[in-house]
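We give this protein:

***
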Amino acid sequence: MVLQRPLFLWGFMGSGKSSHGREIARAWKLPFYETDQLVVERVGLSIAEIFTTQGEAGFRRAEQSVLHSLDLSTPSVIATGGGMPCFEDNAHWMRERGLTVYISLPVNTLVDRILQSRTTRPLLPEKKREALYEHVTHLLAEREASYCQAHLAIDGHLLNVAYLENILRVLPL
């Protein structure tokens, strides 16, 4: 599969944007970028530290700056932060410059993955399963309209390289 433009992966935290992105980039021999990691490298602080010192607004500014600095002249695979498509004009900006894919998963699966993850997530303070489920449900409901602006929405349980290649073969994107 050869992409003609960048592939942006959208979805809630724990949806598999980074793991699927690495797999796709490796299979298609494309550069892979993870915007959260690029923000950390650029700012010199962890995401949790950025939220603590600069607030969510400071993080979103850094995130958008990283997004706009990416070299989009050649195809690549870009795993965005979970909130990136939901702020400013980021969703529109990415749709105009690449193919956007929303990796959709049910709340139960997201909560399971978040609880198993060792990643610090500033918008999800340590919570017991029930409270986390409620919080994820609420935050996902807020973000869903933005995520659904993606060119494609794919069930995260089905997503793999071959599945995505088959979809891209039949869709005029």
